[in-house]
């Protein structure tokens, strides 16, 4: 069996075993909470009793998966450089509020309006990630410590701005404060027409967010950049062995800054699906923890865009089931337990399968070497 196929099968087997074990662990937690594991499993796959409810459930799952996918990509870029960018949470918060406010100050035709908002978010996110990158290459400050501290600053700064300089008029019937509402030209068209292709009615509310298309394009671009360009090779080489990369003409300090800024620029897009597809403003109730969830998604997807997409869909599937779980008398915290158990077990399974694959490759190489070495027969 080819080594690549063998490693892929081992990885798949490890993932399946990890998910089965996670389900078993969570079944114990569900029973301890006084609920039925069968009811919980049924609730996870309950997308509604009507076609429109099914459409709405699918749209909810995909809408929750999109920002997690983008967040996972941002974290994965840092991981490729052997950098732990925990600052995605702060980077997307500060980028989201700046992009929402700037986008509300002018009106252009829709393609230009949306493009400017996206560019503002990427520039702000990249600029905020530039701070820990410079601290690391000039003063040796660990990026974990600096990005954690910058998260607190960004979250507090965003809370101040949305209640102060960037505050807009409070919407009727709401208790939250937010930035001024974006003009209609900044509303990203939804993808509800896709449901008609499979014979389903449009989803309720804002439907399936159109930013899904941007996320798909972003995933392809990141894959090409990291896997098919010199930049991606330099990033990986610098992360694996900085002295060797320097000896080959690659400046690790420059690559650290480049990788962190790129990670921050991608992180700046995390909040835009919600802003451009649903809320049309940054508010005090803006969805939190997307940056931290992105770390789990990146680990689960093994820092590969395709794997991150699958992990984001899994998290979206689990998050969507919060409502049905409550109707089945299952605590919503079960979703968090399942996510944590799956991530932990997948990481363990990944390490074990990598070691097994490595040992198999070493044995295969030893056998080939033994066959290739001629046996000398003494006279």
List keywords for this structure.
single chain, 379 residues, mainly alpha
Notes on the protein architecture:
- By secondary structure, this protein is mainly α.
- Helix content is 72%, strand content 0%.
- The chain contains 16 helices and no strands.
- The radius of gyration is 24 Å and the shape is globular.
- The two termini are 40 Å apart.
- 42% of the residues are buried.
Radius of gyration: 24 Å
Give the termini distance in whole angstroms. Answer: 40 Å
Uncertain residue ranges: none
Strand content: under 5%
Coarse structural class: mainly alpha
From the spread of the alpha carbons, the general shape counts as globular
Question: Nutshell version of this structure?
Answer:
The protein is an all-alpha fold. It has 16 helices and no strands. Helix 3 packs antiparallel against helix 11, helix 3 packs across helix 13 and helix 4 runs antiparallel to helix 5.
